[in-house]
Amino acid sequence: MSLSRDRLISIALVSPSILAVLVFVYGFIFWSVRVSMSNWVGLLPDYSWAGLANYRNLMHDPRFHIDVRNTVIFTVLFVAGCLALGLILAVLLDQGLRGETFFRNLFLFPMAISFIVTGVVWRWLMNPAQGSRISGLNLLFDKMGLDFLINQWYTTPYWGIGFIAIPAIWQMSGYTMALYLGGLRSIPDEVREAARVDGASEWQLYRYVILPLLSPITLTAMIILGHISLKVFDLIVAVAGKQLPLDVPAIYMWTTTFDGGFYNRGAAIGILLLLSVAVLVIPYLRYTLRTEAEL
Amino acid sequence: MRKSKFWPMVVVLLLAMALLSACATPAAAPAGDAAAGDEGTAAEAAGDSANQVEVFSWWTGGGEAAGLEAMIGVFNAEYPDIEFINAAVAGGAGTNARAVLATRLQAGDAPDSWQGHAGQELIGTYVAADQLEPVNFLFEENGWLDVMPETLIPLISQNGNIYSVPVNIHRANVLWYNPGILADNGLEAPTDLDSWFAAMDALQAAGVEAPLAMGEQWTAMHLFETVLLSSLGPDAYDAVWSGEGDWAGEDVTAALENFAKTLSYTNSDASALTWQDASRLVVDGDAAFNVMGDWAEGYFREIGMAPQEDYGWTPVPGSNGNFQFLSDSFVLPVGAPHRDAAIAWLTVAGSQAGQDAFNPVKGSIPARSDGDRSLYGEYLLSAMDDWASDRVVGSLTHGVVANDAWKSEIDTALGLFLTNSDVAAFQDALVNACAAAGPCQ
User: Fold this and answer.
1) Strand B83-88 vs strand B52-57: parallel, antiparallel, or unpaired?
2) Average pLDDT of chain B to the nearest whole number
3) In angstroms, rounded to a whole number, what is the distance separating the alpha carbons of residues A76 and B31?
4) Given an 8 Å threshold on Cβ–Cβ distance, is A19 in contact with B411?
């Protein structure tokens, strides 16, 4: 009796969220797929069948090509930057220096800020104006005599999107550090000592012992950072507004749907975004579920 | 103990589920039924009779909000028994507000009247979806046809039906210049494109690196529409928007080449500047020219600049005699929850008292030509003179000549052009945009 009541409670507890997820996640995914295969342009829904035409058009859309290119550049720089910086910070903190807690929190703090705030601040810092109107980091470089560092930041032709990765790395590398630090702490001292006894240098210790042991952390971090970067929207809008050289799929989805009324195209972009994130996340989920089952 | 906790919890969960399903229902209701069934629900929700009017706008700050308050004051004095509900949604140029409005309309929760840019932005979106009633009767009853320019009416109509009441008029084709810089270089305000280019060449030779200030992407579209008007002239300009003209024509090619040349004089950090930043470059002496709508004048005054001394103005070179306008206007929705009150609001919005309350505060001119001239400053008086005598043509960026879908396709084409400077590809994209979303189908 008491067991079945526990069961009842647990079912009652999860059923609202299951219902909500069914309706608001899977229901709307299905609905978006349907819209993406329709001819809906304008205020009123038009569900007439268009098949894959919207997807085909996107494949030939020069703006979508820019979006994909920008996403790839941003993702590579952002993920690589966060992993490298996060690992370096974690290894430094792991040396047992004084004030570790202080530095740990210092590096982690940017994560508590929203991308919008980060974006507004970095919009000022990365002011591309030169000459008499110079300001932000360019002004700092100018005053310090580091003129060769003065640049156009995110207005740089073609590579501008790469500079957007700087505030993103600033914000998320602390989080990556926390992940790595947790990983480093879980490596038993005996392992390090055994390696040292075998005559490994510090470099060899990290290269051949610690790093391989950290690879599950690296994978987790890549998945988390990767899906953030595929969906990036707010940071770019806050830094640079909606401009085509820095366009990404999420921004195109927003402008084409709400400024242009192309609900069909917006839904198609949304579904492509979902698929790209799924390609990243689903193998990872399967991997973690399988390893958990083994345990 | 366990028992006493169990049942309350179940009740709470059931309530939560009921709430969730209640939230889901309105979204599922088809928008088509909305107009008919709307009257009951909206009145019930507000919990009162017909004595109110809910007006939706994006006037939430600065002179716009103050102007709206002034016009509401006129409304309250004339209709003291109607309660005015100000449903304004913040967000630059209405981007957010229009997304909210679309959601409300799709859910069948229409306000009694809403703000929109007069012209195709309203017609292409809401008339195409059968959401608006023609307001010709208001124009006839109140004699507005006699006090508004004849060339304005076709631009805010479709098939002879007028669909909105314009409250204010802004001018898009204004060239702002720095009189000091021009005088120092022995130049006068240019009157056609060639003299403008010559002046900018001279300024560059004299060390002004970027004589023409430009800002983020929409200000590039603003510059584009004015250069298009200057190059094509008003007849051909109207023709390409009505579908009679040919976007693939040689005159359009020439216009695009002029636009490309204009861009070569602009600042390299344009995409990082707002329109205010760009306009400010002129009064600060970092640039000589800026093409911006006449809301820039309100901004210049706000930062303490004096007309004719710190800034001068002239129509964009080559567009003299043309008034490229945009206008905020109010509409009468089909099945407005409080139709009579909405008509009362529109009557005030089109009246001399209402427009003279709104416009001096907002920094625009009335759509009527009989505004009280003592209320307006030097620039606005010159704009009122031109409004009464010039030929009226519509703005692209601000919603008069192209519907939203067409405009967003042009915006994409323009954005690509700004990155690759390929005139032929730009023209192809404009031809395709007209065929895909404009009248060239």
Assistant:
1) parallel
2) 88
3) 43
4) no
